[in-house]
Design a protein that fits this description.
The chain is of the alpha/beta class. The protein is 40% helix and 17% strand. It folds into two domains: 49-253, Metalloenzyme, LuxS/M16 peptidase-like (Cytochrome Bc1 Complex, Chain A, domain 1, 2-Layer Sandwich); 276-474, Cytochrome Bc1 Complex, Chain A, domain 1 (2-Layer Sandwich).
Length: 483
């Protein structure tokens, strides 16, 4: 009976709202498009406290007492782009074994059980551009968790058996990497664009794993894990004064090192920016996997806001031109889209990607290239522009819906050298973009007739030979060192 009453009240309320709106407008509402929504209220964004400890470690603190949890995140100026090419995989192994091996005081296997029993997570890892460490802990367990992480960061034990296990797991992924055609396409596209021996294109091989020793891990850790090269963020249920003392008594006791922040390796544009047509022949697939594109740009580029709106219109969603033309109109693909890759300190990649029947491979490539060409020749429509703006502006509030996002973003901006208020100007910068801006950005940054084209598939079943688009270079994806 209660459920029936609630349902009737809800229906009456909806009818009342609709009738009121219709009365105000003088006509009934027949479509959601006719509903006029009020302007969004301005947001009050919480501001973390920032300070620098005596050892040079930068700290962001933001209290949030909603739940009894405390989170810690650490950004470390390191990454695989600084590892030797002949020892590719070193950075990844350092991060993995720091966590799995622990320290002499907190051995990895015992640590796993202790953390599980206390509903606590401690993670350490190293990616291409940065290293990271984190704690997710109940408020009452945070002090001990911080003690554990501090000891591991300062005194990792790097046990040989954990190094061997980590290498074995990585090797298992290497020997299986050519099983997935989509993965091949993504991997080889980046290697072609950046250069296979560049810091951004090299990959871990069986032959590079054997070059990595425990001494290499120790040296890498000593070189990069120094407090002045770290940015720390803590948010959650704590008192700021108490937290400052906890940090001073743990991470703050780590003596400042002598290393400076590593210089970001440049992209060798002589080796990068490959164009032409490349083929990975794979006869056991029923589809062609395709990537087309070229080197992209930076988030600091003045055209960045025009370019992300351009990409949304071109291939960013279900209403994009690529999706509507290639999938809906022509039925050539279930998935197709584009991405304007704008890195924070190195250029990303512009890519059009998708998969199609083997017998429509050339047709897909031509249709995709035509759409990229079209957006460089004529202005987008006002409706397309407004829809793209709405996509970003309506979702903007979710960039600030948690203290963790706020702190993490400020840490990222500092890590990559961006102003702390970068995101606060996002709405304004998106709102200012015009159709003419998008056309100008497209003409300047997109190169439809000079894109790298990579296809993974069976050429015997293509509708036309790939030579229709230029000289075809076959790619050898044989795994070095594989017996």
């Amino acid at each position: 009976m209660k459920n029936l009453i609630y349902s009737l009240l809800t229906a009456a309320l909806c009818l009342s709202v609709n009738s009121t709106f219709a009365a105000e407008q003088g006509k009934p509402v027949t479509s959601y498009k006719e509903i006029q929504l009020p302007e969004l209220n301005s947001m009050q964004i919480k501001k973390p406290e920032r300070y620098v400890m005596e050892n040079g470690m930068t700290v962001y603190l933001l209290e949030d007492h909603e739940v009894p949890l405390v989170n810690l995140s650490l950004r470390i100026y390191t990454g695989s782009r600084w590892e030797p090419v002949d020892k590719a995989g070193l950075a990844d192994i350092v991060g993995e074994v720091m966590r799995s091996g622990g320290s002499e005081k907190f051995p990895g296997d015992e640590l796993d059980d202790e953390l599980d029993n206390n509903a606590t997570s401690i993670e350490i890892g190293i990616g291409r551009n940065e290293g990271s460490a984190s704690i997710n802990s109940l408020k009452d367990n945070f002090s001990h968790s911080l003690e554990i992480l501090t000891d591991i960061l300062r005194h990792p034990s790097f046990p040989e058996e954990k190094i061997a296990l980590c290498k074995q797991e990585i090797a298992g992924g290497i020997v299986r990497r050519n099983d997935d055609a989509s993965g091949i396409c993504s991997r080889e596209f980046s290697r072609l664009l950046y250069g296979k021996d560049s810091p951004y294109g090299h990959q871990v091989e069986l032959t590079t794993l054997v070059n990595i020793s425990r001494e290499d891990l120790i040296q890498f850790h000593q070189q990069y894990f120094q407090p002045q090269n770290m940015i720390l963020g803590v948010w959650g249920d704590f008192d700021t004064a108490v937290m400052k003392k906890q940090l001073a008594d743990t991470l703050g006791q780590w003596e400042k090192g002598t290393a400076t922040r590593p210089v970001v390796p440049d992209i060798d544009m002589k080796a990068a920016g490959t164009t032409g047509v490349y083929l990975v022949e794979k006869t056991d697939v029923e589809q062609s996997f395709i990537r087309m594109g070229h080197i992209g740009g930076l988030q600091s580029d003045p055209d960045y806001y025009a370019l992300i709106l351009l990409n949304d219109i071109l291939g960013g969603g279900f209403s994009s031109r690529l999706f509507c033309h290639i999938r809906s109109d022509k039925g050539l693909a279930y998935h197709v889209g584009s991405g304007w890759g704008a890195g924070m300190d190195i250029p990303g990649t512009f890519v059009v990607s998708g998969s199609t029947k083997l017998a429509s491979t050339a047709e897909f490539i031509q249709a995709a290239r035509d759409e990229v060409e079209r957006i460089t020749k004529e202005e987008v429509t006002e409706e397309e522009l407004q829809q793209a703006k709405d996509t970003y502006l309506n979702g903007f509030v979710f960039e600030f819906d948690s203290t963790g996002k706020i702190v993490s973003r400020l840490m990222a901006y500092e890590y990559y050298g961006y102003p702390a208020d970068t995101l606060e100007h996002f709405q304004e910068n998106i709102g200012k973009v015009t159709r003419a801006d998008i056309l100008a950005a497209a003409k300047k940054h997109l190169k439809p007739q000079n894109m790298l084209i990579l296809v993974v598939g069976n050429p015997e079943k293509f509708d036309k030979p790939l030579t229709e688009f230029g000289k075809v270079t076959p790619l050898d994806i044989t795994i070095p060192g594989m017996q």
